[in-house]
Amino acid sequence: MSLHVVIGFGPAGAATARLLAGKGHQVRVVTRSGRAAEPGLEHVALDATDSARLTEAVRGAAAVYGCAAPPYHRWVSDLPPLAASLCAAAEATGAVLVLLGNLYGYGPVDGPMTEDLPLAAAGPKGRVRAAVWEKALKLHEEGRVRAVEVRASDFFGPGVTDGGHLAARVVPRLLRGRPVSTLGDPDAPHSWTYLPDVAGTLVEVAEEERAWGRAWHVPTAPPQSVRRMVDRLAAAAGTRPVAVRGLPPAALGVASLFSPLIRELREIRYQFDRPFVVDSTAYESAFATGPTPVDDQIKATVDWWRERTATRA
Q1: Cα 28–30–32 angle (5° rounding)?
Q2: Which is it for the CA torsion 220, 226, 231, 237, positive or negative?
Q3: Whose CB among 133, 244, 274, 313 lies 3.0–4.6 Å from 227's, allowing a Cys bridge?
Q4: Judging by DSSP bridges, how do beta strands 147-151 and 215-217 pair with one another?
Q5: Exposed/middle/buried for 108, CB within 10 Å: 0-12, 13-18, 19+?
Q6: Is residue 274 within 8 Å of residue 111, measured between CB atoms?
Q7: For residue range 66-93, what is the model confidence (pLDDT) as tens digits?
Q8: The CA-based dihedral angle spanning residues 291, 295, 298, 304, taken in that order and rounded to the nearest 10 degrees
Q9: Which pLDDT tens digit goes with each residue over 175-204?
Q10: Distance between CA atoms of 11 and 198, rounded to whole angstroms?
């Protein structure tokens, strides 16, 4: 089996690294601070923006996976140097460059999002996400790297915690029968991408030459509103239904005075005020791979949170 290097060990990076290890690959995980040893994973501490050191960590790898994300309020300043270092390491070593992206680059659109839409976002986070892929694609077209981008909607599932809109702010509360507050319209259709499907797609495109040179949407189930998802989570947990309330703009305005994260959410508020729907037909057709059934997603998520909260009690 071959060496694979995963940059970042957040939910997506961790799921990808563990999936690769489960397939028998040698897996090297790069994070700024490193981590304790874990079966099947080699953890290396280094700053991934240091292209010389990153290149040495990637040398000999079949693929390098860009799963790291700076703090939300530092995307504009920190994503470009990170992406540049990843591109440099891929070019120097010949490793396939697999980037984990999202849907910000499209900006607000009418109707479902497909991969052939222009990257027309006007906001700073959307523009920087678009620029990361545009640079990697240019290098691919020049024959300097072999690159592919995987785009996901909001993560959902086991391992998704503070950064998920159906995670730490939702599931522990509904398990206790307490009401849930959400950004935007709780009844707007919204696409949720299951974390294990993200990892599976990243690993699959790394090995498929026909996938390279373009972006793909992770197989994602049909959209459901926050309210509907909360109802389904509560039903799976065997708890009573809980109230779901949209946070009023005034409350968000006050909170943004004290929280950099809340301030940054204003740019992507449209994703929750209106339908936000991803179309993953292209990937599902090309690779005969669909999303995990939603009932299975829901059960696994509830079981994971129950175990997590029990161990912390």
Answers
A1: 155
A2: positive
A3: 244
A4: parallel
A5: middle
A6: no
A7: 999 898 889 999 999 999 999 999 999 9
A8: -90
A9: 999 999 988 899 999 999 999 999 999 999
A10: 10
